[in-house]
Design brief:
CheY-like_superfamily; alpha/beta; DNA-binding NtrC family response regulator; about 130 residues; DNA binding
Length: about 130
């Protein structure tokens, strides 16, 4: 199943790099968002979302992640330099990885999340902290 990935990241070069990795896997980038408004507008187009904590409109990532998961059924993983901000978990989100994130980890995450979305067994990437 071809997954559509939403990238919620305010650092444009990081967002482009993530997008290139996703596309190289044969997946579709649902869009790039750098704030809450854009992320929620693009939400209906996505199956998976990588969400930073601190965005152009402030530390809105946790709220965005919760809303994407709860309101749209999107598989959400936070990618942040500040994983302690979401260390207690965010309702509906799956987990967090610490930046910088290498392309190989992005590939592992997409494969894991895609399998999880369709109820298949998948190995959790070692660098990801899973929320309980």
């Amino acid at each position: 199943m071809k997954q559509r990935v939403l990238i919620v990241e305010d650092e444009f070069l990081i967002a482009l790099d993530l997008g290139a990795t996703v596309e190289a896997m044969g997946m579709q980038v649902a869009g790039l968002a750098n704030d809450r408004e854009e992320a929620l507008r693009l939400a209906p187009l996505a199956d998976i979302a990588f969400v930073d904590v601190n965005l152009a409109d402030g530390p809105t990532g946790p709220e965005i992640g919760r809303r994407l998961a709860e309101e749209h059924g999107i598989a959400v993983v936070f990618m942040t330099g500040n994983p302690e901000v979401v260390a207690d978990g965010v309702k509906g989100a799956i987990g967090v990885v610490q930046k910088p994130v290498m392309p190989s980890l992005v590939e592992q995450l997409v494969k894991y999340l895609a399998a999880r979305q369709v109820g298949m067994f998948a190995v959790v990437p070692a660098q990801m902290t899973v929320f309980t």
